[in-house]
């Protein structure tokens, strides 16, 4: 075993999970993790802002799916995790804050009585009293979220709630998104004979209403990265960009900025477009599928205001902004209301997002212009006229993969091509099962299992 060498390319949460799993399950394997950047974590980064550890991108993870929570438990971090203090959110609709109906599943109201007057037209509200059967039988195979939701509960619910929520999380259009990847529970419920709403209501009735949907770490998500990276020691090589991949009789040749490495197996835990470039000379068909995964670019700005200049609701986590609201921002999180550990400072902290797949205005602005545009939006939505005390802009170009219908089939085709023509090479990351940290951890686990067999 000790002579088997596995190289993991990329030390984002996916690559770090792959390495952790290999280290745990195959301790004798010679493992190396090559990371282009000066620090591990990729899209996960925590840094001090207004005296507190404020995440520059992801700040929490979903706990209704197992992978992230399981990993934290394995690492002994589960006792340290915290649930959001404030759990309700609003949507900026018609120039005002409207509460998201509760309960809801991805924005679909389960109780029509919880829908604030004026949020939905009467005929759409009436429809919510029913079972949520589709207008016509849903076609087989993967569908878009728009196809499923529009057919079962109408256009207004889709446009004023679901697209705002799902489109916001993924910076895309829910009309273009694979329901199989982005909301498999909706697809299954919509196909059930009792109808989407009836199926979602019975799932909801079995759930613990007090159970949190998200967890975070009070030191920021960077703590999970540091814990995983700490286990790797000098197996993690920073500032080591992989520039090429090739074959030799002795195994896979991995070209890096520091020389060529030899490996029995390689996990490419990098964005799909990077994996595509590296795989082109090795397996062009798999590379082509990867190159076609579109990515959205986003920016996230942290704002700190003085308490006497801005007051935000202590019982709300923030608000979402639909694409047609005429604003620049896409969402605002009241970080100090949402998380108790970020509410302790002497400033009101906000995390404000900008950018969608089809809105690149933020990327064309310098930091000063972006700060002003977002501050103008905050003045309109929160009434804050005073300048912020501090602002920090974080740029995330080509960070959020978009999942078109049939995505899972294309990923399976990549696996088949690699298994047949490039055994020992595996691709993993947010482009596989979804952008969320749990989905990345799942992909990392699967990649470790795959190369563990072949190496
Ligand atoms: C603004 C924002 C907010 C988010 N919020 C949340 C949230 O609250 N909750 C949640 O669950 N998810 C959230 N996400 C999504 C989640 O953070 C990401 O999907 C996830 O971190 C991606 O991890 P990854 O390891 O797959 O990819 P990455 O983090 O992109 O890691 C890939 C790594 O590969 C390295 N690399 C690239 N090319 C090479 C090369 N040639 N050689 C060597 N190394 C290379 C990169 O430097 C990087 O470190 C958010 C994302 C963004 C952008």
Q: Would you kindly provide a brief summary of this structure?
A:
The chain has 455 residues and is α/β, with parallel strands linked by helices. The chain is built from 16 helices and 21 strands.
Q: What would you say this structure looks like, in words?
A:
- This protein is α/β, with parallel strands linked by helices.
- It folds into 3 domains: 5-44 and 221-293 and 403-454, FAD/NAD(P)-binding domain, CATH 3.50.50.60; 100-206, protoporphyrinogen ix oxidase, domain 3 (Orthogonal Bundle), CATH 1.10.3110.10; 295-401, Polyamine Oxidase, Chain A, domain 2.
- Helices cover 35% and strands 23% of the residues.
- A 7-stranded mixed β-sheet has the order 7-6-17-18-19-16-20. It has a 5-stranded parallel β-sheet with strand order 11-2-1-15-21.
- Helix 1 (13-25) packs across helix 16.
- It is globular and about 70 Å long.
- The relative contact order is 0.19.
- Bound molecules: flavin-adenine dinucleotide.
- Residues 9-15, 34-37, 42-44, 57-61, 241-242, 269-271, 274, 298, 300, 396, 399-400, 429-430, 435-437, 440 line the site of flavin-adenine dinucleotide.
């Amino acid at each position: 075993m000790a002579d088997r060498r596995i190289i993991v390319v990329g030390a984002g949460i996916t690559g770090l999970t792959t390495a952790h799993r290999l280290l745990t399950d195959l301790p004798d394997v010679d493992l190396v993790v090559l990371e282009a950047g000066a620090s591990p974590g990729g899209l996960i980064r925590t840094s001090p802002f207004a005296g507190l550890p404020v995440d520059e991108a992801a700040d929490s993870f979903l706990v209704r799916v197992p992978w992230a929570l399981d990993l934290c438990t394995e690492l002994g971090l589960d006792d340290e995790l915290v649930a959001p203090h404030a759990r309700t959110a609003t949507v900026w609709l018609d120039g005002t804050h409207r509460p998201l109906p509760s309960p809801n599943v991805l924005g679909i109201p389960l109780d029509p009585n919880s829908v604030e007057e004026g949020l939905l037209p009467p005929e759409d509200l009436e429809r919510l009293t029913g079972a949520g059967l589709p207008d016509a039988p849903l076609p087989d195979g993967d569908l878009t979220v728009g196809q499923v939701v529009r057919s079962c509960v109408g256009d207004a619910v889709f446009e004023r709630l679901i697209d705002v929520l799902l489109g916001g999380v993924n910076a895309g259009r829910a009309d273009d998104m694979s329901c199989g990847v982005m909301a498999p529970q909706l697809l299954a419920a919509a196909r059930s004979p009792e109808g989407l709403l009836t199926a979602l209501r019975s799932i909801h009735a079995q759930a613990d209403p007090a159970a949190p949907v998200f967890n975070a770490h009070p030191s920021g998500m960077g703590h999970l990265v540091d814990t995983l990276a700490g286990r790797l020691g000098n197996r993690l090589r920073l500032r080591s960009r992989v520039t090429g991949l090739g074959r030799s009789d002795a195994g896979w040749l991995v070209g890096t900025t520091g020389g060529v490495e030899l490996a029995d197996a390689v996990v490419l835990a990098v964005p799909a477009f990077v994996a595509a470039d590296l795989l082109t000379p090795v397996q062009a068909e798999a590379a082509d599928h990867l190159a076609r995964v579109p990515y959205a670019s986003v920016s996230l700005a942290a704002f700190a205001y003085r308490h006497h200049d801005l007051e935000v609701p202590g019982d709300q986590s923030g608000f979402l902004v639909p694409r047609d609201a005429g604003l620049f921002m896409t969402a605002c999180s009241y970080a100090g209301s949402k998380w108790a550990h970020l509410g302790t400072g002497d400033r009101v902290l906000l995390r404000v997002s900008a950018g969608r797949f089809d809105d690149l205005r933020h990327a064309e602005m310098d930091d000063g212009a972006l700060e002003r545009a977002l501050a103008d939006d905050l003045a309109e939505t929160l009434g804050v006229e005073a300048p912020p005390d501090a602002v920090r802009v974080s740029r995330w170009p080509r960070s959020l993969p978009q999942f078109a219908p049939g995505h899972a089939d294309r990923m399976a085709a990549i696996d088949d091509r690699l298994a047949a023509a490039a055994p020992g090479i595996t691709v993993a990351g947010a482009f596989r099962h979804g952008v969320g940290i749990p989905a990345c951890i799942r992909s990392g686990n699967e990649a470790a299992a795959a190369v563990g067999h072949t190496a």
